[in-house]
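request received
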Amino acid sequence: MRDLRISVTDRCNFRCTYCMPLDEYEWIDRREILTFEEIERLARLFIGLGIEKIRLTGGEPLLRRDLNRLISRLASLDGLLDLCLTTNGALLAENAAALKAAGLMRINVSLDTLDSEKFRRISKRGDLSKVLEGLFKARSLGLGPIKINAVIERGLNDDEVLKLVEFGRTNGFAIRFIEYMDVGNANHWQSAKMVPKQEIIDLINRVYPLMERGRLYGSAPSLDYDFADGIGDIGVIASVTEPFCGGCTRARLTADGKLVTCLFSSNGYDLKGLMRGGAADADLLAAISSVWRERADRYSDERLEAMRSAGGYNPEAHKKIEMIRLGG
Ligand SMILES: C[S@@+](CC[C@H](N)C(=O)[O-])C[C@H]1O[C@@H](n2cnc3c(N)ncnc32)[C@H](O)[C@@H]1O
Ligand code: SF4
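response:
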């Protein structure tokens, strides 16, 4: 266990077609959302068990009121080497300075297209110019290196891979292309919409030759590449076509305090219930250790095996926790 993703809210101001396409969800009751004190306590315990990196996510993390207070609490925890946040960028311009001042080290911004009309079609509620403003503001404040997450979906934005690469190279952002995954249930994922990593790499390599660098620590989800001309780098997260379950070091904490050991899990272990029931730190540590020790997740490996089998893969056969709950 090396990195922890904490979902600070399940609410979002966008409705991205690949993530939460519906207008309404069964939202987590506000009383069930972890308080900052509870998050800090759990983060400290996780760090004691080997976590070195924490990423705040959601839902849209910048919707959580006073997030800066949580960031400064987490930033002062001993043993934490990396504290970052993934955001859709809509509220970044006005928050970037306070995030930096609170001790946030880096951000990832999700951006799938540079076309404002398409951006609206994907996010349903977003405004591309606001996201770009936030990106450049964050860069000017040194909240980097900034990575851009781009989910590539066939027929939607697969024609923009090179445009995104050029945008990244020109402006000093590292693009992380993400294969469209069957997270949650609401997006009704179909494998035909997923653009495989190899296709993305071939497309880029023909114009901007790439040199494979490998995975950070040998186990990170992103397989990274440097441009042969020395200008920038990209990565691809290929959890569908090249699963990395065997090297997974990632734990997740849902907004309502459940420990989840896989992005494709159908349930989590209720740490909040234990905490609010009066558990001592030693009890929580024992619970976390035992959940982690017993995990046998290899969902993406199994998906690929099924996709290659005669029967094929049926994404609807397995109910998963929605991405906004467990923190993408
Ligand atoms: C769930 S979002 C949460 C943080 C924030 N709201 C954002 O969009 O950056 C985290 C990341 O998950 C990615 N994501 C969501 N649904 C996905 C899917 N079906 N396949 C691949 N990536 C997905 C998003 O593009 C985003 O980069
Ligand atoms: S990807 Fe992020 S911005 Fe888009 S709906 Fe999901 S949580 Fe919201």
